[in-house]
Amino acid sequence: MENFSLTTKNTLKVTENSFIITFNEKLDFIPTQFIMIETPSVVRKPFALGEWFNDLAIGVEVIGKGTAYIVEQKALKVHGPLGKGFVPPSGKGAMIATPACLAIAFDLHQRYDCDVFIGSVEKLLAEIPFEVVYGNDEFVELLESLSGYDWFYVVGSDQMEKVAFDLLRQKAPVYISFNEYMACGIGACRGCAIQTKEGIKHVCIDGPVFRGDLVWN
Amino acid sequence: MELNPPLIIASGVGGMGEYLKLIDPKYIGAYTLKTITLFPKEGNLPPRLFATQEYLMNNIGLENVGIDAFIEKLNNNQYEELFEKTKVIFSLGGDDAQEYKRVAQKIAPYEDHFEAIEVNFSCPNVKKGGLNILSDLSSLQDLLIYMRKVLKGFLIAKIGVEGIFVEQIAQILKDHAWNGITLINTIRGLQIVNDKVFKGGLSGPILKPIALRAVYEVKNRAPELYVIGSGGIMCEKDADDFFKVGADAISLGTAIYKDPHIVERIAKHIGRCYG
């Protein structure tokens, strides 16, 4: 783990508020590991590492001043890579993600045998190499139609993840990327706790990916 | 206590030494561990954090392994690397006066490992202990006397600004031969987050004027006490201000979340200006 800077190579607008930022630097990481990025807030914010056509990348959904700041910068102060990362079980998987998580989806798709499905409520402004469904009803229809997979990995908003978990849990193990607030990202502050069936876990050092049924009923 | 530089990593923020992965220890005068209580604490239910540009609010709840597990780890040399790299301050807590006493008894044989023992009388995020200890002055004095008797080394009280005037507690500490005081801990705060009440301890830049005033008042009332200034120190100028009002050392907390490199910058500044 290091404290370093990343310089922006390209900022691709995927939807009105979602971006893929690619970097000039390279970094070794395990899928779903993340970096903590400095913003105007008093704490850094976690962003999952990914790849976009051979470049190191992150996905950002602009939801406030901190995320807007990240999209505007040419260089970012960060530390990482952090977290356990996610090595999927054997067999074929399906990843369900929002447009803001395209970089992590691209990376996972490159490394493992998994199909990627993107659910979006907004029109995509960029061409992407994955299937996209638009709208909530279509998203639910997609999830209901998925079959024959040995595992699922879901990454997006809390609400989207819960909907996907509920619809997929009977079909195969569902892995969820959790979005808890973090301050340090390295296990020092104990701020990113989640209640699981095995007691309190910390998203930064025990996750960020957990089996959904370990956390949710 | 001789620290070079007079810069301390605050309890809680730095966990059990994790930030040495990101900060060169030569810029740290001492590293304060997370508060250890008599029994293990799982901490409070999530959510535990809320942050803005002005403050961080935390509701961790003193999550820790408890003194017995801590001593077992100590005996198994699990903190050896930490001790090799920097001076370490042990942070002691409990749910009531009796628990503080029992933790003091248990850590006493290991005091040599530590530069100082800091007693947390001010955590705002636990239902018992912490801040509540200050509400009963006579039992507090009894506790101070007992701990001074059991612990032979440099003894520091970490105090908030609620419950009692800081200069009043400073006088009591001095009268009972305690060595130092850390000012200030987080202050109780509340924010509405996603339409729900979120209660926690406030830290970050918003605390600086309050912490400066606390240091100033204590140094005037009890100049013999070693005063560690803590609260909203985010840059070199902030550190200067604390030294100007009488702090003997400064303690960095929330600032290292924003940028761990700030420790090196402030340490170098201290070296240039006060070294």
Walkthrough of the structure:
The complex is a heterodimer of chains A (217) and B (275). With 217 residues, chain A is of the alpha/beta class. Chain A has a domain at 2-82: Translation factors (Elongation Factor Tu (Ef-tu), domain 3). Chain A is 22% helix and 37% strand. Chain A has helices at 65-72, 102-111, 136-145, 158-168, 203-206, 212-215, and strands spanning 2-13, 18-23, 34-37, 45-48, 50-52, 55-61, 75-82, 93-97, 114-120, 131-134, 151-155, 174-177, 193-196, 199-202, 209-211. A seven-stranded antiparallel beta sheet of chain A has the order 4-3-7-1-2-6-5. The longest helix of chain A has 11 residues, at 158-168. The radius of gyration of chain A is 16 Å and the shape is globular. Chain A starts with a strand and ends with a helix. The model of chain A has no long low-confidence stretch (mean pLDDT 96). By secondary structure, chain B is of the alpha/beta class. Chain B has one domain: Alpha-Beta Barrel (TIM Barrel), CATH 3.20.20. Helices cover 33% and strands 20% of the residues of chain B. Chain B has nine helices and twelve strands. In chain B, strands 1-2-5-6-7-8-11-12 form an eight-stranded parallel β-barrel, surrounded by five helices. In chain B, strands 3-4-10-9 form a four-stranded antiparallel beta sheet, with no helix packed on it. The A-B interface holds A 1-3, 38, 40-44, 65, 77, 79, 180-184, 186-195, 199-200 and B 12-16, 18-19, 21-22, 34, 42-43, 45-56, 58, 60, 63, 204-205, 234, 254-261.
CATH level 3 topology of one domain in chain A: Elongation Factor Tu (Ef-tu), domain 3
Tell me the number of strands of chain B: 12
What is the mean pLDDT of chain B?
A: 95
Give the amount of beta strand of chain A, in percent.
35-45%
What CATH architecture of chain B would you give? Alpha-Beta Barrel
β-sheet strand percentage of chain B: 15-25%
Helix and strand element order of chain A: EEEEEEHEEHEEHEHEEEHEH
The shape of chain A is globular
Give the count of helical stretches of chain A: 6
* CATH-derived architecture of one domain in chain A: Beta Barrel
Query: What is the CATH superfamily label of chain B?
Result: Aldolase class I
Strands across the major sheet of chain B, in which order?
Answer: 1-2-5-6-7-8-11-12
